[in-house]
């Protein structure tokens, strides 16, 4: 599918403010699956240097008889992208996979925020230690 400059700018705008993303393709449309990797690359580019929480979803699992993308292909791509993977149906969400995908994304966003908080706390402790060391060096010289 061709994307206009406006399409890309609009996408980048959404990407900038988002804390986490669900990339959805249609299991009955190989073209939509092939758009996942470029979309993820654009996301990485926009969010750099942050490593953004992601979940990959193959939608329309109720249309298994016209499937064009195998479950294993989705699983493999998710493994490459180091993110969770679900197949679901927005029309017939019997197993609850739609809400599970959203919950997993929220958990991932919280996990990353907690990790970033820890890293920030650690770096501020390092700054305090450096300042004390500097003062001690000055006093002793
Ligand atoms: N059978 C089935 N149809 C679905 C499912 N999810 C969406 N659809 C249908 O797919 C069509 C497109 O859905 P939209 O919500 O417009 O999604 P979109 O991302 O704009 O999709 P495209 O127009 O195909 O690019 C609609 O007719 C929906 O009813 C699903 O899980 N199963």
TrEMBL record:
It catalyses: GTP + H2O = GDP + phosphate + H(+). Gene3D superfamilies: P-loop containing nucleotide triphosphate hydrolases (3.40.50.300). Keywords: GTP-binding, Hydrolase, Nucleotide-binding. GO terms for molecular function: G protein activity; GTP binding. Transmembrane segments: none annotated. Its EC number is 3.6.5.2. Belongs to the small GTPase superfamily. Ras family. PANTHER family: RAS-LIKE FAMILY MEMBER 11. This is small monomeric GTPase. It comes from Scomber scombrus (Atlantic mackerel).
């Amino acid at each position: 599918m061709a994307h206009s400059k406006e399409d890309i700018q609009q996408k980048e705008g959404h990407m900038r403010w988002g804390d986490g993303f669900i990339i959805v393709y249609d299991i009955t449309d190989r073209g939509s699956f092939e758009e996942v990797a470029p979309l993820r690359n654009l996301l990485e580019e926009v969010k750099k240097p942050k490593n953004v929480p992601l979940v990959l979803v193959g939608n329309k699992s109720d249309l298994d008889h016209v499937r064009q993308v195998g479950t294993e292909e989705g699983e493999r791509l998710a493994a490459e992208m180091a993110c969770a993977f679900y197949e679901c149906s927005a029309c017939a969400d019997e197993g609850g996979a739609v809400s599970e995908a959203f919950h997993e994304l929220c958990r991932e966003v919280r996990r990353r925020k907690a990790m970033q908080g820890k890293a920030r706390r650690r770096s501020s402790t390092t700054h305090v230690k450096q300042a004390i060391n500097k003062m001690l060096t000055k006093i002793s010289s």
